[in-house]
Write a structure and sequence with these properties.
The chain is mainly alpha-helical and 338 residues long. Helices cover 76% and strands 1% of the residues. It is built from 16 helices and two strands. The chain is globular, with a radius of gyration of 21 Å.
Amino acid sequence: MRAFIFLCISLLLLCMLSLLSGPATTWSEVWNVLAGDSPAVEFWINNSSLFELRLAHVTLALCVGFALASGGRAMQLFLQNPLADPHIVGLSAGSTTLVLLCILLWPSFAATYFFDFIPAIWIAAFVGSALALVFVQLVFFGVVRRWGIASLALAGLLINAGCSALMMLIFARLSPAALSQVQAWTLGSIQPHSLSAVALLAPLMLFSGVVLIRFDTPLRMLSFGSEFAIANGVNVKRMRFVLLSSLMILCATTVCASGSVGFVGLLIPHLSRRIFFHDHFAGIRPWLNALLGATLLVLADLCSRTLTTPIELPVGVYTALLSTPFLFLVLFRQRSVQ
């Protein structure tokens, strides 16, 4: 429980620092507000539109990290593969590819907004993720069902490979200006959205993450074999359907919010298992995992907006930079244990 409180406080402090930091605000101004030398209310009023944009940005970063970490833990338990993450089934690749196709082939639709705050491109993201799910669920579980869970990883491998080939074709056809526009989707970057759009995306990301967290105990039962899980009252087919459906919503919404952010769903479950292994409250571990993912992505987003100003690097670059040494340590410790 102390770890849970510590993570909540750390996340709150990071969110506050992220709200106060950015290219348009100097560190001296932030320090004067924190130290009480400058009136906080006046500072907030003078920068209200800026803070509204940053609040949407920070909220999206928090929700994306929460969702990706939850999806990564769920997929590693479901596939019994320590290298699994939410992108392994190909749903994110299908979503991103259809978004890029929409930008290339139907730019007028891609620039349209419904109700003045819902980008039409979100429809492409959800349709792409849904088509990938249909491909996985109907084709592979119908054709190679005898392979069991391995067929899911094979489906994701083929979808990712096919979508990567399509994206290379798209990049070859794009102009330099359009290429810079779509890099945010492929490298992973928090998209600028209004608070109204965030109010629509954030609950969907949190809902899908919470559903995957709720399946943590049945998934751990499934790791002992499907017979053991069924004997303990787990409906494996229903769980698989709900799991993949929640993952579809998760992948589509995270692509809408931040493009294809890598490493969060892969790293955080490993990191949380090692940090919180001795926590006696087993039911709280998936929540700690999700909070750790949210903390990492808010930190990566803060770095992307402050370390290289006035240039803002994609947040996916920082998640890769932050994750690589941790993954190396995980592999090194695993080798030492063996």
